[in-house]
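Could you show me just one protein sequence together with its fold in token form as a worked example?
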Amino acid sequence: MNAHVSPSDAPAGLYTAEERIRRDNSIWTLVQGILAPIQFLVFAVSVGLIIHWWMTGAWLMAAHVSVVVKTMTLYAIMITGSIWEKDVFGAYLFARPFFWEDMVSMLVLALHTAYLVSLWGNLLTDGQLIALAVAAYVSYVINAGQFLYKFRLARLGASSSKLSTEALA
């Protein structure tokens, strides 16, 4: 199976029957289901701290720590997501159904990593660091939207498959 294909080579559904079985049997599906809302919660708290800093000038260290924690949760979900993708599609990244999501994920990782390097290397001012965090978070929101859209497509595909199977019975 060649998992590295262009997006235009994708079949009509999100998953083949075999991929759906592998997805449903993979422990990494559960791990992703647990990590995604945790990462979103960390993101929401961090956004609140960043807004608080912008409005008051206080809690800068808390904002920085929250972005670091958010980045660590991002790394965790990206690593386990790559393992999930290997389990289901046979490739760690850029598998057919998640090609564009993985492309945007690379930008998300790059921006979050640039934040860490800049923070630890003392390369930017506090305002520049927070602006970089906001750019990373905007890319994260776009990427999360992509994955939520695919999650919805998968659910709709599962419903239509179930209806088709029931109609044949």
The two ends are 31 Å apart (CA to CA).
